[in-house]
Structure formats: structure tokens, C-alpha cells
Specification:
Shape: elongated
Pfam family, one: DUF8173
Number of helices: 8
Distance between the termini: 59 Å
Number of domains: 2
Keywords: Membrane, Signal, Transmembrane, Transmembrane helix
Order of helices and strands: HEEEEEEEEEEEEEEHHHHHHH
Oligomer: single chain
InterPro entries: DUF8173
Strand content: 15-25%
Protein name: DUF8173 domain-containing protein
Radius of gyration: 29 Å
């Protein structure tokens, strides 16, 4: 599948660096990119298309190169077709060779392949005739079409449909030998290659997608380590930078809506630097630094957002009592982290609540260079508002 990898690299390297059109033509080749890429104009030569969803609704004169989470070919391809994606469906003739890699790969009865077909994926179904040779490696393989040449199949599960016919020889590898129907191929043209134990485990684990899930103990241990890490970071900041923590907490308490807006702007600006640097040569070495900075900013914002909300709840429960000490603040932080983690089990609303906490914290951090510190808190009362911007 080296050619498919080469196509993927070419699509990612070339298409995003044009002047951001959804489609353009160069030298007769058609380039299409977008979230929902519908190719509705005929490519004079080759076609290069990428997007979350790629649908070919116009014929291609020569070769087609497609990449997307969902790829559908509904019109003929005059040359070779190379595609990669999550769900790949071929429902039109291909005059040349077919090379496809995907989680789910399907060719239906209208997809007549004029050359050889090479398919790889989790589940592969061949419903269209192949005039040349067929090579398939997948977790589940279903052959339900006539094949004009030799066939090589490696599969965890192998099935033959009523339309399956093999004119050449059949070489297949499974865990155990199968009874190949005589209507598919004569027994003297069948060769079984035992699938080794290591290869069989790879098929079951990687191709079939049956990945082992962590046990309850591992999940709880991971959650406990994350909680300890965040509480430890909170303790470090409270011990060595108490004035800065109080200032950031005061900003969130005084103007939470402004902090949310600033957090959204700051996070958007940080993430927006990634594609900008990727389009420049001199900026490429800075990409790891920017990505690390975004991760650290996200973690710091989350920690600060949870701490600020937890502290508001603690002060409300204590009424007019004196300002809580460091021990109570850390206990409130730990309780807030647990509650925030449990919120993630609520569909949609849970992650939105956690995202708002991140934005609160990032907004306060982003305001540090532009505002004077907030006035110190007096006892258990609410912090004063920050002074006007410089």
C-alpha cells in the first residue's frame, strides 16, 4: 500500500498550501479540498480530492486519488483509483487498477475493475467483478463476484457469496483451512497457507478492531494519578505564587463573562498558529513548541477554572467565616476535580461544562499582561474587581 501512503502525503502537502480555494485545476489535473468535497466536474486528467466526506459524482478521465473519512465513488474512473479512508464505497467502473485501504471497504455489482484490485481494511466486501488479480488483507473478507485472475486472501473471517467465481488460482490464509465451494473454484486450484499464531493474533487485535479494554482497577488508578497530579500542581502554585493565584481567582470572580470571552480568543489564537506555522518553512521548527504550549495552557486553564469555581462554592458554604487556609483550598480543589470528571459522563453538557472551566482559566491567564493585579481579598468576602486596563 506504498502508493496509497504516497497519495496521502501528496494530498496533505499540496492541497492545503494553495490559496485556499475549494477546487482548482492545474495542467488538466483537478484538485478538490473541503469538509464536504463533492466532485461534480469532470477531471481532464487526474483527480486529487480530500475532505471529511468525499463523493465522486463526475467521471475522471485518468487516475483518481481520494482521501477522506467517508469516500464514495459514484461515477467511472478512466484510469487507476487509489483511495484511503474510514468508509470507502466503490459503485462505478474503474478501467485501471484499484488500490484501497479503509476501515470498511465495499465494491458493489456496478464496480467492474478493469485491472488488478488490492484492498486492505477491517471489513472488505467485493461485490463487483475484477478482470485482473485480487489481493486482499482484512479482518473480515466477503467475496461475492467473479475474479478473472489469481486471488490472494488473508483474513480472520472469510466468506464466499453466491456470485463468487475465481478463474485463476486461489491462495488463502486463515487460522484453519476452509471448505471452499466447488462453484467458486475447483479444489486442485486452491492452496491453503496457514496463518501463523502471531499473524492470527494481529488479525484479531488490529484488523477486527477487538482491542482489549482496561480493567476497572486500571481506570481508577489512572484517575487517581491524574487527581494527585492536579492537586500537587495546585499546592505548588498556592505555596510559591499565592499572590498570583489570588489575583487570577479575583479576575474570574469579578468578571467571569469577560474571562470566558478572552479565554476563547486566546485559545483560538494559539491553535490558529499551528496551520500558519505549518505553511511556512521557517516556522516548522516552532511547531513542537507551540503544540506543547497549547497543552500546558489547556492544563493550567483547566486547573485554574476548577479552583476558582470550587473556591466560590467553599466560601458560600462557610458563609462569612475567615478566608480558608491552604488545606481547605486543596480539599476544595480535589472535590472540584472529581465533580468535573464526573460531569464528563453527562452527554454534551458534561464536556461543555469542562470546556467552560478551561476557558475561564485561560481567560484569566491571558489578561495578566494587560491588567493591574486585582485588589487583595479582605477576609472571606468577595474579591474586588481588577482595576482598569493599562
Amino acid at each position: 500500500m506504498f502508493r496509497i501512503q504516497l497519495v496521502v502525503a501528496l494530498l496533505l502537502a499540496v492541497i492545503p498550501q494553495v490559496a485556499h480555494p475549494e477546487a482548482f485545476s492545474a495542467g488538466g489535473d483537478l484538485y478538490v479540498a473541503g469538509e464536504d468535497s463533492r466532485v461534480m466536474s469532470t477531471a481532464g486528467r487526474d483527480l486529487f480530492a480530500t475532505g471529511f466526506s468525499v463523493r465522486l459524482t463526475a467521471p475522471v478521465t485518468q487516475d483518481a486519488h481520494l482521501l477522506g473519512a467517508r469516500v464514495e465513488v459514484a461515477r467511472p474512473v478512466g484510469g487507476d483509483l487509489m483511495a484511503a479512508g474510514g468508509d470507502v464505497k466503490i459503485s462505478a467502473p474503474v478501467q485501471g487498477d484499484l488500490s484501497v485501504a479503509g476501515v470498511s471497504v465495499t465494491t458493489d455489482s456496478a464496480a467492474r475493475i478493469g485491472g488488478n484490485a488490492r484492498l486492505s481494511g477491517g471489513a472488505v466486501t467485493i461485490g463487483g467483478p475484477v478482470e485482473g488479480a485480487l489481493v486482499v488483507s482484512a479482518g473480515e473478507v466477503t467475496l461475492d463476484a467473479p475474479i478473472g485472475g489469481d486471488v490472494w486472501l488473508t483474513a480472520g473471517t472469510l466468506r464466499f457469496g453466491a456470485e463468487a467465481r475465481i478463474a485463476g488460482r486461489l491462495h488463502y490464509s486463515t487460522r484453519e483451512p476452509l471448505a471452499i465451494p466447488a462453484a467458486v473454484i475447483a479444489e486442485d486450484r486452491v492452496t491453503f497457507h496457514p496463518l501463523g499464531e502471531a499473524a492470527a493474533r494481529m488479525v484479531e487485535r488490529d484488523w477486527n478492531g477487538h482491542w482489549p479494554l482496561p480493567g476497572r482497577g486500571a481506570v481508577l488508578a489512572g484517575a487517581a494519578r491524574t487527581l494527585v497530579f492536579f492537586v500537587a500542581m495546585g499546592a505548588i502554585f498556592l505555596a510559591f505564587a499565592p499572590r498570583m493565584v489570588a489575583d487570577l481567582d479575583g479576575r474570574i470572580a469579578a468578571r467571569p463573562a469577560i474571562m470566558l470571552l478572552r479565554g476563547l480568543i486566546a485559545l483560538s489564537a494559539a491553535i490558529g498558529l499551528v496551520p500558519i506555522l505549518a505553511l511556512t518553512i521557517i516556522g516548522l521548527p516552532l511547531l513542537p513548541v507551540i503544540l506543547l504550549a497549547i497543552i500546558l495552557l489547556w492544563m493550567a486553564g483547566y486547573l485554574l477554572g476548577v479552583f476558582a469555581v470550587s473556591l466560590r462554592v467553599l466560601r458560600a458554604l462557610r458563609g462569612g467565616a475567615a478566608e480558608p487556609g491552604m488545606g481547605l483550598k486543596l480539599a476544595a480543589l480535589a472535590a472540584g476535580l472529581v465533580v468535573a470528571a464526573l460531569l464528563n459522563f453527562i452527554p454534551v453538557l458534561g464536556w461543555m461544562a469542562n470546556f467552560l472551566l478551561v476557558l475561564l482559566g485561560i481567560g484569566a491567564i491571558a489578561s495578566l499582561p494587560f491588567e493591574r493585579p486585582a485588589p487583595a481579598m479582605a477576609g472571606g468576602g468577595e474579591p474586588g474587581a481588577p482595576s482598569d486596563e493599562r
